[in-house]
C-alpha cells in the first residue's frame, strides 16, 4: 500500500522528480559502476545522481543499496532513496505488464475500483512473484473498504519483500480503521524500523498513543 504522509499524499510523483533531477545535475553517472561508486561519495549531489541513475536503470539487486540510504545523514538523499525504492519496486521488467500497471493506477485514481482490482489481479496471475502487483491490489481493496482482502494481499507483499514499508504502514492503517489499535501500533513501528523517515506513520503512532491514554484515563 501507499501510506499518505504530510510530505505527500501519494508517491506517484516520484518518477517525475527522478526524471527532472537527472537534468538538474551537470554530470550524472554514465554507467552502473560509476553510479555504485558515487553512492559512497561524501558529496550530496553525487549520491543524488547515483540514486537517480539506479532508480531509472537499476534492478531489484539495487534495493538493498537504496535501503541503506534511508538512513543517510542528508534529508534530501533519504527522500530520493525512498522514491528510488518505489521506482524499482514498481518496475515489472515486462513492457506489457508495465502498461497494465499504469492502467490499474489510472483506474484506481478514477475510483473505478472493480476495474483496478481486475487489472492488478491479472498482473499477480501473470507474475505472482512481483510484490508491487500485490501491493497495488491491496491498496485498491483498502480504498474499496475490503479490509480482509487488503490484509491478505499485504501479507503476500511481505512474503516477497519483507522490507516493503508501504505494506507495513498500510497494515497499520487498516488496523487503525478497524480500531484494533495495538495491532496498528505494532505494524506502524515495524514500518519505522525499516524506514525511519515516514512522518505520517510517526504522527499516527502518536495519535493512537494519545487515544489509548485517554481511554485508560476514562477507565480509572
Structure characterization notes:
By secondary structure, the protein is mainly α. The chain has 3 domains: 14-89, Leucine-rich Repeat Variant (Alpha Horseshoe), CATH 1.25.10; 93-160, Serine Threonine Protein Phosphatase 5, Tetratricopeptide repeat; 163-220, Serine Threonine Protein Phosphatase 5, Tetratricopeptide repeat, CATH 1.25.40. The chain is built from 12 helices and no strands. The chain is flat.
What would the keywords be for this entry?
Leucine-rich Repeat Variant; Serine Threonine Protein Phosphatase 5, Tetratricopeptide repeat; 220 residues; mainly alpha; single chain; disordered N terminus
Itemize the secondary structure elements and their pairings.
Elements: H1 14-24, H2 32-39, H3 44-57, H4 63-68, H5 75-89, H6 95-109, H7 113-126, H8 131-143, H9 147-160, H10 165-177, H11 181-194, H12 199-219
Helix pairs in contact: 1-3, 2-3, 3-5, 6-7, 7-8, 8-9, 8-10, 9-10, 10-11, 11-12
Question: What's the short version?
Answer:
This protein has 220 residues and is mainly alpha-helical.
Order of helices and strands: HHHHHHHHHHHH
Mean pLDDT: 89
Shape: flat
- Give start-end ranges of low-pLDDT stretches: 3-23
CATH architecture of the largest domain: Alpha Horseshoe
User: What is the alpha-carbon Rg in Å?
Assistant: 18 Å
Structural class: mainly alpha
Number of domains: 3
Looking at the chains present, what oligomeric state does this protein adopt? single chain
Task: Give the percentage of residues in beta strands.
Answer: under 5%
How many beta-strand runs?
A: 0
Kindly identify the CATH topology of the largest domain: Leucine-rich Repeat Variant
